[in-house]
Amino acid sequence: MLKPAVPSKKVPKAVKKKNYNPHQLGKKANAILNTMLAVFAFSCVFPFLYVIIISLTDESVLEKNGFSLLPETWSFEAYQFLWAIKSQLLQSYMITIAVTVLGTIISVFTIAFYAYAISRPQFKFRKQFTFFAFFTMLFNGGLVPFYIVATQVLHLRDTIWALILPMAVNAFYILIMRTFFQRSVPESILESARIDGASELRIYFQIVLPLSLPGLATIALFSTLGYWNDWFNALLFIDNPALVPLQSLLMKIENTLEFIRQNTLLTGSVKGIMQSVPKDAAKMAMVVIATLPIAVSYPFFQRYFIQGLTIGGVKE
Amino acid sequence: MARIKRFFQDVYKNKTWLLMVLPGVVWFLLFSYLPMFGTVIAFKNFQFHPDGFFASVINSEWVGFENFEFLFSTDDAFIITRNTILYNLVFIILGLILAVATAIILNEITNKKMAKVYQTGMLFPHFLSWVIVSYFVFTFLSVDRGMLNNIFQWFGMEKVSWYSEPEYWPFILVFMSMWKGIGYGSIVYLAAIVGIDRNYYEAAMIDGASKWQQIRHITIPMITPLIVILTILNIGKIFNSDFGLFYQVPLDSGSLYPVTNVIDTYVYRGLMTMGEVSMSTAAGLYQSVVGFILVILTNYIVTRINKDYALF
Amino acid sequence: MKKIFLVLFSCLLLLSGVLAGCSSNESEAGGKDGEEVKLTWYMIGTPQKDMNKVMEEVNKYTKKKINTTIDLKMIDWGDYDKKMQVVIASGEPYDIAFTASWANNYVLNARKGAFKELDQLMDEHGKELKGALDPAFLEGAKIDGKLYAVPTNKEVGQQGVYVFNKRLVDKYKFDIQSIKSFEDLEPMLQTIKEKESGIQPMTTFTPHAPFDYILDDKMPFAVPLEGENKIVNVYETDEMKQNLDTLHKYYKAGYIKSDAATSKEPWALDVENWFVRKELYQPYAENIWSRNAGYELVVQPMHESPITFNNSVTGSMQAISATSKNPERAMEFLNLLNTDEYLRNLMDKGIEGEHYEKLDNGRIKDLPARKNYTVPSFALGNQFILDLYEEDSDDKWEKFEEFNNQSDDAPTLGFYFDPKPVRTEIAAISNVTSEFAQALLTGSVNPDEYLPKFNKKLKEAGLDKALDEMNKQYEEWKKKQ
């Protein structure tokens, strides 16, 4: 059977297993570690396969037998339900992609700039600005003032920027990037360029950035995921159906279900809603189409990511 | 006067750096610092005013620490604080060990193609929201249709009604948190490990250092700054918790509250009937202040041990 | 080091000044002397495909009638509460918002000053509206003598009913008329459990309890409908104990879903997987339900006559925001919406000839395009001026009025508790309640064991203090009546 969801603490112990192989990792250790990673990686992917199976299960079978790995009857009905709202889905896809791409570019640039500056000993105010960024990780003014800034100062309501700007910078990523710059871009490399009279900006673009691809790729990956999965900003700022991203279509269903659960007394009057709430299979189909694109594009994305890591690895 | 002059000279000398941080600074000012003024409502009884938020804040009466009382008033207050801290401690320690171990293994195993596949797989849970994860957990733990109970029955064992027996949940929650977070966490460390200068390893190999020794004396020391920083940051969030993990995964089941109730879920449930902006702001402020103090403390201790590793 | 913070701090102050300026200067005032005005209206419900089309027609009409156009913002069911909390707290200018006891909480928002007092506005700009409404709504929805939202004219009382799947009732020849109490259901449930696999004997519901709840129907505060007129802890009453015992018995027998306490099963009508459920009745509701379900249903009342609770009179209302720049126009619009048959039907069913058609006898029938425009009728406005469907009974609205006349007032009708003095206790009690109530009210746990625990924890959370405060406020209110 498949590995059930019981706690397992095997992974860390394995590190000790390979004591006796001086240079390369021994065959045996390699095999053991491979197996462990494979099992864990499979347990990570498995739910997604499961979700796909459920989305292809006939609704009446789900109703009767519950979830199962090999459903009695397969059905594409759930996807037909989605086909019926294809124009909205397509529009939402476009929005999500646009937001993710634009947002990732903006956020990687802003974060890398900031992190690089505070990683350099030449920058006199680096400590202050590090603290300035760090402080925001712990304290926030809460939702309402944030909403006011976005709607009344920046006038972001019902624009695509409402989905991009609020997530553009993240102090956590800045601090990770700062450490990365400190470790991977040592001053010694930059010294010679400085002696040649290159400006700091030129050094940054021509030497630092190419050296930092692994770090940049990591940050880019994180922000891509963040943008792709965001729905809360859409809830706050987007009323125009043409600007609703994919994830918030999904969350609307969830929120409605939770709403029904908490308002049991209402049953009489909310009959109208119940009809619009998709059944289990349709919900899973929704999960599939909201997650699949990024899930399948990630391995391609990862190629560059790994490339970035390797380039970073073979540097002088 | 002289000092002010010197300050401006410094600003001028550092103008390139300042230019670099400028976009970030503007963003922080707008989205983080400006909204912080809203925190005053934690000390007020918030009443709406027709002239907008500022008028509301100014006209609401001060109530001191009254909005904080509900966090401390009952026996539950002890339980939620204990749960929050204990879970976070386990998450921090176990998460650190597992993520670093995974990153090192990924870096060491000989088949790089497979390493890539594993890495892709392990990041998968990060794509799924907690709501979806909770469905998935449900397919395992459901009393009559769950996979685990089916297996148990197969072996002639008693069915377990998972969602009403608290003793299993500390493990389930820790497992789920690790399951979802390790792929993501190991990527950060992997990026740092790959960034380590290969020359160190070559030198070590010439000296006849075993793999284990290499890891202990090169890899781990090289990523220690990152470990320290991430841990300090996590300690700052020790009073916060992942709402989805503690609310959606246990399906908000009442009988599990003794082990699943944390500060965030307590605040949510307590204010559901009243929708008090002031009280939820107060709870947020409480979490931030404790986190802040802890971070400053940890950072101070780290500074005493090794100045280079400190956050600021 | 200190200086840079000083500089930053002054920047902040400057920015906050800008912020303050922005938030107060932004207004679209006007319309005092009949200029054209645009009203923003937040409404609950799933946004509809043909919304813009219909609103264009609406705006044509309202522009002609009261020189006003409407910007309708439909927010989905589950999002509405969250969104409105932020919109209201931020002091954003808008004009009209849906409010009720169950979404965008009417009492809390009114108490906190989010809504305009409407008494005078209604007398000046909404006379027809006032005339059209059942006075029970206007009286019941007043908080400390003032009205803060326009109730929707519909059924005023609540009547819990058992709804049965008619196919199964006929099949086993059940006499549903004989059911007087929750316990009477048992033999039927047993038959269904034994003979019908794949059918859940009862959906997850709590039986009728003779209480008038103060905050919501899980919190422990209520006035018993019979007996002493004061607020008690319902979880210490015999009636509640009896209900919980029966529920637990049914649960153990497998009549209730085994994971009822945590399930998100919505028990959609169009899935025929149940035998009996609970609904709130309105005249001819069984016809609507049967139509939605696609199979026949029958009903049997749970208690004698309908009861008018606070929750039922504030079940669906439109409030005018305290931040509205054009409250008069907003009232004129609500007046028109609730009294003008053309506008009301247009908003309810869409455009005639496109979304529905009128038959020769004056009745109406949906057209296929209607699925692109389905809005929650009960939440929008006056029900009594809606056109009747082909299959509706002639006396539908008369029956509604009869139903309203039969309704008995609940003891606390018009009393709205102000939780401010005991909000710490209420927060704690709310937590304890969500820990125990769901499990008890679905029968999932044994009341003999859990009820004492629950009550003990309630006491620790400050139940007595909260009860004292409530009863104090209640006594004061009663004196004024």
Structure description:
Chain C: It comes from Fictibacillus barbaricus. The complex is a heterotrimer of chains A (316), B (312) and C (481). In chain A, 72% of the residues lie in helices and 0% in strands. By secondary structure, chain A is mainly alpha-helical. Chain B has one domain: Orthogonal Bundle (MetI-like fold). Chain B has 14 helices and two strands; from the N terminus they run ααβαβααααααααααα. The radius of gyration of chain B is 25 Å and the shape is flat. The model of chain B has no long low-confidence stretch (mean pLDDT 88). The relative contact order of chain C is 0.16. Chain C has helices spanning 2-25, 51-66, 77-89, 106-111, 119-125, 127-132, 135-140, 166-171, 186-195, 238-252, 285-293, 310-313, 327-339, 341-349, 377-380, 396-406, 423-441, 447-460, 463-480; strands at residues 37-44, 68-75, 96-99, 149-151, 160-165, 200-202, 211-213, 221-224, 232-233, 274-280, 297-301, 307-308, 317-320, 356-358, 364-366, 408-409. Chain C has 19 helices and 16 strands. In chain C, the strands form five sheets. Chain C has a five-stranded mixed β-sheet. Chain C has a four-stranded mixed β-sheet with strand order 6-10-5-11. Chain C has a domain at 27-155 and 310-409: D-Maltodextrin-Binding Protein, domain 2. Chain C is an alpha/beta fold. Classes of the chains: A mainly alpha (316), B mainly alpha (312), C alpha/beta (481). The interface between A and B is large, with 122 and 114 residues.
Sum up the structure in keywords.
heterotrimer; B: 312 residues; mainly alpha; MetI-like fold; two-stranded antiparallel ribbon; 14 helices; flat; C: 481 residues; alpha/beta; D-Maltodextrin-Binding Protein, domain 2; five-stranded mixed sheet; four-stranded mixed sheet; 16 strands; 14% strand; globular
Please give the order of strands in the largest beta sheet of chain C. Answer: 2-1-3-13-4
Helix content of chain C: 40-55%
Rg of chain B, nearest Å: 25 Å
Largest sheet of chain B: 2 strands, antiparallel
> What structural class do you assign from the helix and strand content of chain B?
mainly alpha
Q: Please indicate the percent range of residues of chain C in DSSP E strands (runs of 2 or more).
A: 5-15%
Keywords (chain C): Signal
Protein name (chain C): ABC transporter substrate-binding protein
Pfam families (chain C): DUF3502, SBP_bac_1
InterPro entries (chain C): Bact_solute-bd_prot1, DUF3502, SBP
